TrEMBL record:
InterPro entries the UniProt entry points to: SLC26A/SulP_dom, SLC26A/SulP_fam, STAS_dom_sf
Keyword match Membrane: yes
One matching Pfam family: Sulfate_transp
Main localization of the protein described in the UniProt heading: membrane
Subcellular location: Membrane
Protein name: SulP family inorganic anion transporter
UniProt keyword annotations, A-Z: Membrane, Transmembrane, Transmembrane helix
Topological category with respect to the lipid bilayer: Multi-pass membrane protein
Spans through the membrane: 49-78, 90-107, 113-134, 165-188, 200-217, 264-286, 307-325, 345-374, 395-426
Ranges for domain SLC26A/SulP transporter: 14-390
């Protein structure tokens, strides 16, 4: 069985290695940016990316999701370090959060992921696409000093997503903009069907060409047009590690003496809950994007994330989740199996050990162009059209989720979208718990209510209102012949109606419905 699986992985390496390279190019500045925003050492984000790529990718049941530090956790990390007053104390909380996720996996809590409505997941993907476009335009123009992976509406510099855009047009760096435009043009042309006919364009990712060319352009600017040269604040900034000793100095260990501090457990529980939710949302979204429509085993994913967080915390890394931006970059680049995520982890490791000086020459505007293309693929106009076609009960939660994520952050937006989605689910349940048939006889109406196969507590409101509006002097037959399950709340409502119907001269006949005792208040 294993040999068969390894053969499959080997067969797709031609697609997985280039995809892993693209994910690495996208992940590198995100890992650094998230560390910066979290108030953690820069190296910690890279360590998290390496563990997410090399370890979690192999343990996970998802073929396409990529794990690493998440923009959605930056506030939790920042507050956690402040609360515990030391980074080493925070690392202990990350390790404990990993153990909690393992427990959640073993008690099968991953089932929560199946309760997110499709419209909300699609809204999340579209919102992330829009945010990527809006957030990367300032980097594309060389006008943004906020960190590269920043995703929330209110930014660290006090501006918002929209005010940052207006500011960007007043602070354009011409060199960065030229690099960005050339990069974006190459990526769009590279993706066209007529170029994909040639093997070279299929195998070599456009993002790699863009990166190499952008470095060459900036070096050319430095020697021939210094006014266009891109400053170091708009380039990748990886810590340079010259030796094994340097590497050892960068690693931090958790402070186990803080096990007696109750605050550590509060931070750990917060990380475990938020990271698990974000992971479940991400893998659900990735499964929707997967061309092969494979399903991720959610409980196995929680266990994999748990192991990842334990290891990450033990060596000085940040908490991790499955991350939709990197995962969608993987899918957009043609990744087929988990080998692409593994390859991205290996590239991150190699970059730290051998490539820091070279990678620090990459302009962020070139990487912003890569994310602009990914953003567009996530929020294509066809997605909005297809949701609108399905009907308002799908389209409204979809749009509300997009707007809520755009103006708050991922988890708050999802909760708002979920609330609207649940409202429409309740509304749909309200309509269909029974079949209603009315016939006229000489002196009275006969109304037959045939209950459906599964009558849950969600149907109670509908049944109660229907019974309340039965016409006086009628004969009502409530038939549960087709019902496999009738919720206790519904049975109680039927019995209560049966007890009081005589007051309106209604005769009630109940067939195949179990009796329950109703509390009498008199």
């Amino acid at each position: 069985m294993n040999s068969k699986r390894s053969t499959n992985y080997m067969a797709t390496l031609g697609k997985d290695i280039p995809a892993g390279l693209v994910v690495f190019l996208v992940a590198l500045p995100l890992c650094l940016g998230i560390s910066l925003a979290s108030g953690a050492p820069l190296f910690s984000g890279i360590l998290t990316g390496i563990v997410g790529g090399v370890i979690v990718a192999l343990l996970s049941g998802s073929q396409l999701s990529v794990s690493g530090p998440a923009a959605g956790l930056t506030v939790i990390v920042l507050n956690g370090i402040e609360t515990l007053q030391s980074f080493e104390g925070f690392l202990l909380a990350v390790v404990l959060a990993g153990f909690l996720q393992l427990v959640l996996g073993f008690i099968k809590a991953g089932v929560i992921g199946l309760y997110f409505p499709s419209s909300v997941i699609k809204g999340m993907l579209a919102a992330i696409g829009l945010i990527l476009i809006l957030k990367q335009i300032p980097h594309f123009m060389g006008a943004d000093d906020d960190f590269f992976g920043e995703m929330t509406f209110i930014q660290p510099d006090g501006r918002t997503t929209f005010s940052e855009l207006f500011h960007a047009f007043t602070a354009i760096n011409l060199g960065a903009l030229i690099v960005g435009i050339v990069s974006l043009t190459i990526l769009i042309v590279w993706d066209t069907a007529w170029l994909k006919r040639y093997k070279f364009f299929k195998l070599v990712p456009g993002a790699l060409i863009v990166v190499v060319l952008s470095i060459a352009m900036n070096e050319m600017f430095k020697s021939m047009a210094p006014g266009l040269a891109i400053s170091s604040s708009h380039l990748v900034s990886l810590p340079v590690i010259g030796s094994i000793t340097d590497m050892g100095n960068e690693l931090r260990l958790p402070d186990f003496s803080m096990l007696t501090n109750p605050q550590v457990y509060v931070v750990a529980i917060t990380i475990a809950i938020v990271a698990s939710l974000e992971t479940l949302l991400s893998v659900e979204a990735v499964d929707k994007l997967d061309p092969h429509k494979r399903r991720t085993p959610n409980n196995r994913e929680l266990k994999a994330q748990g192991v990842g967080n334990i290891l990450s915390g033990m060596i000085g890394g940040l908490p991790m989740t499955a991350v939709i931006v990197r995962s969608s970059a993987n899918i957009a680049a043609g990744g087929v199996t988990k080998m692409s995520a593994f390859v991205h982890g290996i590239f991150l490791l190699l970059s730290v050990l051998f490539l820091a000086n070279f990678l620090n020459l990459i302009p962020l505007s070139a990487l912003a162009a890569v994310l602009l293309v990914i953003g567009f693929k996530l929020t294509k106009p066809s997605l909005y059209k297809s949701q609108l076609k399905i009907g308002s009960e799908q389209f409204i939660p979809f749009v509300v989720t997009i707007l809520a994520i755009l103006f708050t952050d991922l988890l708050v937006g999802i909760c708002i979208g979920l609330a609207v989605g649940i409202f429409y689910i309740l509304k749909a349940n309200y309509k269909s718990p029974y079949f209603y048939h009315k016939e006229e006889q000489q002196d009275r109406e006969i109304i037959r209510i045939k209950l459906s196969e599964h009558v849950s507590f969600l149907n109670k409101a509908s049944i109660v209102l229907t019974l309340e509006h039965m016409p006086n002097n009628s004969h009502v037959i409530i038939d549960g012949e087709n019902s496999e399950y009738i919720d206790y709340d519904v049975l109680e409502a039927i019995q209560a109606f049966r007890k009081t119907a005589h007051e309106r001269n209604i005769t009630v006949e109940v067939l195949n419905v179990p009796e329950v005792s109703v509390m009498d208040m008199h």
